[in-house]
Write a structure and sequence with these properties.
about 260 residues, 6-stranded mixed sheet, 14 strands, alpha/beta
């Protein structure tokens, strides 16, 4: 991308961390740096200036590296200050900049808008980043490739608002960078729901091939692609009304999540 570079950094078993760099200024932010030393290696490789940490939610596999990265900045004062963003004052370690819906800030020349997407956790934040022509959204555990997060602290209507009311309203070419690699399992489930959906079948075949090549192969997705393959973003399709015997998309969302939890 011309104005931004996004580097995927695998972590733990199936997590992704992301380094987001403004190409013009080489200012950078890191999303959910659960493995700080690995992040700092990539920062050095990219020769960029890291000064922001974006936390999607408080779960350990996303926010568990905040303290370690913050302390490394305290020990290396020539790096400057590390600003830590997130939506949960009580449960996100080292938070310096609490954010809410539509709060904005910059990564160099890149514009960031915060999207409040409670459900997986009550204070989950997605980060929508825009350059001159490119767009990306970092969705944590709200939106996955062909799936969504479990409703640990929220309700079906909250996930409906997150996926349909907010994320699906982003431009179709927005690249989607999710918090975990769950594509293969999500697509297998989606194929049971929509066996005649050619987009799902095609991406499922790609996911099955990519599984042999490593877990980075299908990330990022796009908002436009998710609208075609992600059953949780398709709950208003007439097909679902018949399948789930309801014309209420929130009830479809609830039944889909229940079915996926048992899949």
């Amino acid at each position: 991308m011309a104005s931004m570079t996004v580097t995927k950094i695998p972590a733990l078993k199936d997590n992704f961390m992301y380094l987001v760099m403004c190409n013009a200024t080489r200012q950078a932010a890191v999303v959910d740096p659960v493995e700080p030393d690995r992040v700092l290696e990539v920062v050095q490789q990219q020769n960029c200036k890291l000064n922001k940490l974006l936390t999607t939610h408080h779960h350990w596999d996303h926010a568990g590296g905040n303290d370690g990265l913050y302390q490394r900045f305290q020990q290396n004062t020539d790096w400057g200050e590390l600003s830590v963003y997130g939506g949960d004052d009580d449960r996100i370690t080292r938070l310096t900049h609490p954010v809410k819906q539509d709060d904005t800030f910059e990564i160099g020349n890149l514009r960031v808008r915060c999207l409040s997407t409670p459900c997986h956790t009550k204070s989950h934040i997605c980060y929508f980043v825009e350059g001159e022509q490119e767009r990306a959204v970092f969705t944590g555990d709200t939106l996955f490739l062909a799936g969504c997060g479990r409703f640990f602290e929220g309700t079906p209507i909250q996930m409906y608002e997150a996926l349909i009311g907010k994320l699906s309203q982003l431009p179709d070419d927005t690249k989607v960078y999710c918090g975990h690699e769950y594509a293969l399992q999500n697509l297998r489930f989606a194929h049971t729901i929509e066996p005649d959906n050619e987009d799902i079948r095609e991406i499922l075949e790609r996911a099955q091939a990519a599984d042999l090549e490593g877990r980075q192969a299908l990330v990022p997705s796009t908002i436009g692609l998710e609208k075609r393959i992600n059953v949780f973003m398709r709950v208003r399709e007439p097909f679902y009304t018949t399948m789930f015997s309801t014309n209420h998309p929130v009830k479809v969302m609830e039944q889909l999540r229940s079915a996926k939890d048992k899949f």
